[in-house]
Amino acid sequence: MRSDYLNLMGVANVYLFVQLFITPILMVLFANSELVQIIESELYFPMATMFTAESVGISLLGYMAFLIGGIIQLPRVKGGASEIDWRAPNVVRMFWTFFLFGFVWKIFRLLAGGDIQISGAKVGFFGDEVTFFLSLNSFHMIALPFLAIAYYENDASFRRVANYYPLVLIFYLVNGLFNGAMSSVIFPLLMHFAIRQRYKKIEFIWILWLALVVVAVIYFKVFMKTLLLDDPENTMSIFAPLTILVNRISISFVIASIVNNPDFSYGYGIVEQLMYSLKVPGFEYALPDGNALGHAYSLIDAEDFRTGMAISLIGDLFLHWGLIGVCTGMFFIGVLYRQVTALTESKHRLSWIVYALLYPIMLHGLESPVSVLIAAILTITVVCVTYYHLGRLFLLTTSHGSAIYKIAVWIRGGASK
Description:
The chain is mostly helical. It has one domain (8-77, 85-408). The protein is built from 17 helices and no strands. It has helices spanning 8-29, 34-41, 53-69, 92-111, 128-134, 138-153, 165-179, 183-196, 204-230, 240-249, 252-260, 270-277, 290-296, 313-341, 349-364, 370-394, 403-415. The protein starts with 7 loop residues before the first helix and ends with a helix.
């Protein structure tokens, strides 16, 4: 049995359901179990008293609006640039140029004395500077789908081009496991499957195996970080990583807190937050503070000034516009997710690359403020399209030569006159 089980809309439906309802369901089914009591004892809030009929009902309405919006398919815009020859050996130049630029940018940041930002979830054993340089950034992530398409396009020709792509993918995953946040592991994996399923449909049994592997990798990373580095004396229970996962994946805690007490001021309006997320000068005041949110609702320890709670799309919409905002906003967000999913139906590989990059970002965006999600979509799309056309212009050759070659010929011709 083969089907496109891993498309963005389908996975988003499942993941959003898990985020919203898995914890309330487990609380109903296993409220008095020993495991739930152990997990609850290591959280900073009582799970049993969090959920009300109102909070679950608002989550359900938002989820239904998202599903309805996901049914609507808007007319597609036809046309676009002509395809490049993805089987040409020099197409790999695009990947390596963007990939190496990521490290060049890091060197520039180090020499310029800029802020060294490293993930608090790293489990590596190097200093901050080395970890900062070794960890992968957005430049590296944007480069990966280019190499993936070059690899699969050459499948029929024994992969003479980019045949080392599996090794590169493994490097991304191992690097993210030790030097980055959990997203540094999950994002490359999801991008890989977003490209792969365009060439080879994935059987359902392999999707189950993939889900098990992802859960195992997440648990292993959290286990290493929590029990081996943060708690070397082993004072925490073996269920500590599970507790963190419950707190991390389930946004129902935050939504229930917001619905029960909607008076918290989470930054400014969504438009101002969007300007801030797009790095527009003058909107620094609109920073949405997830750490303040966690403290206000007692979802994190009072002495924790680093952890930020994910407000989620539904929580953000409810705080700003109430129930009407939840229903209307989630409907249009569902429409947006459906249109991005439709990129896979395009014949142009650039659309596939944009889709592969947005795939993990939009799944992660389900737990983000609306402004952060929109800003991420706009930024990644613009950067990706720019990369692609710069690559066409300066790195790829055609039967008539590259753009640089044509410019050089034109200059020589003008000088000889």
